[in-house]
Amino acid sequence: MSWLDEVPWNDQGLIAVVAQDFSSARVLTVAWMNREALQQTADKGEAVYWSRSRKRLWRKGEQSGHLQKVREVRIDCDSDAILLKVEQVGGIACHTGRESCFFRKLENGNWVTIDPVLKDPSLIYKK
Amino acid sequence: MSWLDEVPWNDQGLIAVVAQDFSSARVLTVAWMNREALQQTADKGEAVYWSRSRKRLWRKGEQSGHLQKVREVRIDCDSDAILLKVEQVGGIACHTGRESCFFRKLENGNWVTIDPVLKDPSLIYKK
Questions:
Q1: Is residue A52 one of the residues assigned to a domain?
Q2: Domain count for chain B
Q3: Separation CA A97–CA A23 (nearest Å)
Q4: Among A107, A115, B59, B97, which has the highest number of CB atoms less than 10 A from its own CB?
Q5: Tens-digit pLDDT profile for residues B1-55
Q6: What whole-number distance in Å separates Cα of residue A19 and Cα of residue B126?
Q7: What is the mean pLDDT of chain B?
Q8: B127 to chain A, minimum CA–CA distance in Å?
Q9: A35 belongs to a structural domain
Q10: The domain spanning residue A24 has which CATH number?
C-alpha cells in the first residue's frame, strides 16, 4: 500500500496541511492538499496545494516567487492532517506580505493585527 | 459585530485549529472548533474543541489531565483557520503519549514513527 493510500482523504478528497517555518518555527499557513498535490510536494520537494477557491493545483509561490522548500513531511496520529516543515523563500508566506498568515491576535474581543508587512503586496504581485 | 461573527464557519459550522506549544514551538495537534468551542476557549483560557467523532464539545485534557492553557489565539488572513499558542500541561498532547500528534515523518515512501512515547497511554487513561 502506498503512503498516499494511508491518508483518509475527506469527502472532497482533501487533507488539511499546516506549513511551519523550519528555522523560525512560526506557523506560516494552513492550506489543503489533494492526492496529486501531496504527491507533487513529495516529488518536487516544494509545497503544492489544492486551491479550494480556484479549484486547481497551486504551486505555492508560483506568482510571488515565495516558494516553500520542504524539509520534512509529517502526518498526525489519525492521519487527517499533514505538517510541512519548510524553508520559506523570501521569508514571506502570506499574500499580505507578512511572514505568517496568522498575523491577527485576539485581544479584548477584537482581532488585532500585530505583525508587520515585510513587503508591499503590490511589489510582490506586480505584473 | 462580535469577533466570533468574523469567522466564516464552514458548512458544518466548524473552523480548523492548530495548537502550537508556546515554549517548544512544536505543532502539537490539529483539531476543530465550532462557535461554542471557540467562545469557551476564550472565556476559560483553556482549549475546548469540537469532537467530530463524538459530536460533542471536548475539553482538551478532560480525561488525561493534559489541558492546554491558552496563551494566544490567532486567526489567519482569510479567517478560516485558528492558531492557539498553548502551554501544554504534562508536555503531552497526543493520545499515544507523545508530545505532538505529528510523530510520523515521510521517509523513502513510508510514514516512519520518529518521536518517543513519553508516557504509556494506559497510565494516562487509567480509570
A1: yes
A2: 1
A3: 19
A4: B97
A5: 799 999 999 999 999 999 999 999 999 999 999 999 999 999 999 999 999 999 9
A6: 35
A7: 96
A8: 23
A9: yes
A10: 3.10.20.810
Chain A residues close to B107, C-beta within 8 Å: none
Q: Does B114 map to a domain?
A: no
- Residue B84: what residue type? L
- Which residues from A are below 8 Å from B when comparing CB atoms? 2-3, 6, 16, 18, 20, 25, 27, 29-30, 42, 72-78, 80-81, 83, 94-96, 98, 101-106, 109-111
For the stretch A67-105, pLDDT in tens is: 999 999 999 999 999 999 999 999 999 999 999 999 999
- Identify the pLDDT of residue B10: 93
Alpha-carbon distance A113 to A115, whole Å? 6
What proportions of chain B, in percent to the nearest 5, are helix, strand and coil? 15, 35, 45
Inter-residue contact A7 to A34 (CB < 8 Å): no
- Helix locations, B9-113, DSSP H: 35-44
Q: How many angstroms separate the CA atoms of B14 and B31, rounded?
A: 10
List CB contacts (< 8 A) between A109 and chain B.
2-3
- Domain of residue B87 covers 3-93
Nearest to A77 among B77, B96, B105 (CB): B96
